[in-house]
Amino acid sequence: MKVNPNALWDSSLQLIKNNVSEQQFNTWFKPIVFESFNEDTKTLLVQLPSPYVYEYLEENYVDLLSKVLSRTFGQGVCLNYRVLTDKEHNISQDIQAEPSAQIDGPKRKERANQSPTILDAAGPQQIDSQLNPHLTFSNYIEGDSNKLPRSVGLNIAEHPNKTTFNPMFIYGPSGCGKTHLINAIGVRTKELYPQKRVLYVSARLFQVQYTSAVVHNTLNDFINFYQTIDMLIVDDVQEWMTAGKTQDTFFHIFNHLFLNGKRIILACDRPPVDLQGMNERLITRFACGLIAELEKPNVQLCIDIMQSKIKRDGLKIPADVVQFIAETANGSVRDLEGVISSLMAYSVVYNCNIDMRLAERVIKRAVKVDDRPLTIDDIMETVCRHFNVSTTAVAGRSRKHEFVIARQVSMYLAQKYTKMPAARIGKLVGGRDHSTVIHSCTQVAQRLSIDKSFREDITSIENAFRLKK
């Protein structure tokens, strides 16, 4: 079916608009008037408002025009201008384009591993989105801490052409799920709109690419490539706080994408107002859309996340162990995943069941020392070191006075510093029942009220806990 030349020209203008700023388009391209297209000679004639416009286009945009017209009108098209030289008397002059504006066949690419130039960028191309296909909305569990960002993110992915909530600036502490969410937005967008040019990039990688472009004198190519993206997703933008030149370059890319209705998704560990050292004009642009906070997941959301992972990976982890991990993993999704992976590895390597004792040992190694809570092992080791007895003897059945004291103190401090029920404490301290734990705690509390020396022992042990943490 024959395509109307006017429609082809409209398509050409749209491609040009996607590759120049709004001001450049309105100044130099919008005033161009389509005159005619001769299919036999493949000659395109357009009218220009003045000789100055003609000279500027030939000097600055001839390559862009050539590339665009080859994609819309076909290869070998010849571009001619009808330049209005006298507006008052409507006198014009026909000018044949310079040879450089003749559209040749596609040239062999010699820069395959570099960012496309403005010529290559004129038409949509397939690019590697750099998204993690495993980070999707289907495994991004919703909870009170992420409900708003998740809902808005899903809406953006399903309606990327809308301009509401643009840019979307997501911030929150490490491990709260920012990277997962912004990946999920990109993955969902590509599923629904495969033709969209979606790109995920870390702020650090963007900075490295920028530096490389400066060194190799390809900065224009670098900028032009990023200006062709339909949805740009940048992670960890706080990395730019001391990178002024990178900020300036991203500012121009941001403006181009924003003015052309392209989507911008940003993730950061703090809100825009706390980005000390960031250019003020960039901060105002970060804040002009939606600022969405991701909080650390609460205990219930941690449990839901773990249960989802457990079900997906076919693991068997008791409910009390899941509860314990959720309460002690600092509200970090990253820590949760690390603990579960470690539990699975220990279980396979040592051919053992996943129980509370194993969970405590894994937590001790997986969670940062400054943040992790005390475990039964921590308490027993510190108590036994203070009383100069072995943990094996304390966990055993011996009724020697020094072993009984250390055992009772361990149970007392476990009840004080952990959230475990008496039954769980008793099981971990030599397999005793909950009544033994209650009796031991009562005995220790009574002795503390009358024995100054014993109080000093307990204070010394508790100070050792603080030093250990």
Label this structure with key terms.
469 residues, alpha/beta, 4-stranded mixed beta sheet
Residue fraction in strands = 5-15%
> Globular, elongated, flat, extended or rod-shaped: what is the shape?
elongated
Helix/strand class: alpha/beta
- Total DSSP helices: 21
Strand order of the largest sheet: 6-7-8-5-9
Question: Biggest β-sheet, characterized?
Answer: 5 strands, parallel
Q: Which stretches are poorly predicted, pLDDT < 50 over at least 5 residues? A: 99-124
End-to-end separation in angstroms reads 76 Å
Instruction: Give the averaged pLDDT, no decimals.
Output: 82
Question: Quick one: how many beta strands?
Answer: 9
Helix-strand pattern, N to C? HHEEHHEEHHEHEHHEHEHEHHHHHHHHHH
**Radius of gyration, whole Å:** 33 Å
- Oligomeric state of the chains present here: single chain
In percent, how helical is the residue content?
A: 40-55%
What's the SSE blueprint?
Blueprint lengths: L4 H13 L4 H8 L3 E6 L4 E6 L2 H10 L1 H11 L5 E9 L4 E6 L21 H4 L25 H12 L9 E4 L6 H15 L5 E5 H13 L3 H8 L4 E5 L8 H16 L3 E6 L11 H7 L3 E4 L5 H15 L5 H10 L4 H18 L5 H11 L9 H12 L3 H5 L5 H17 L4 H7 L5 H17 L1 H17 L1
Parallel strand pairs: 2-3, 5-8, 5-9, 6-7, 7-8
Antiparallel strand pairs: 1-2, 3-4
Helix pairs in contact: 1-4, 6-7, 8-9, 12-13, 12-14, 13-15, 14-15, 16-18, 16-21, 18-20, 19-20
Compose a concise summary of this entry.
With 469 residues, the chain is α/β, with parallel strands linked by helices. It has helices spanning 5-17, 22-29, 51-60, 62-72, 118-121, 147-158, 178-192, 203-215, 219-226, 244-259, 280-286, 299-313, 319-328, 333-350, 356-366, 376-387, 391-395, 401-417, 422-428, 434-450, 452-468, and strands at residues 33-38, 43-48, 78-86, 91-96, 168-171, 198-202, 231-235, 263-268, 290-293. It is 52% helix and 11% strand.
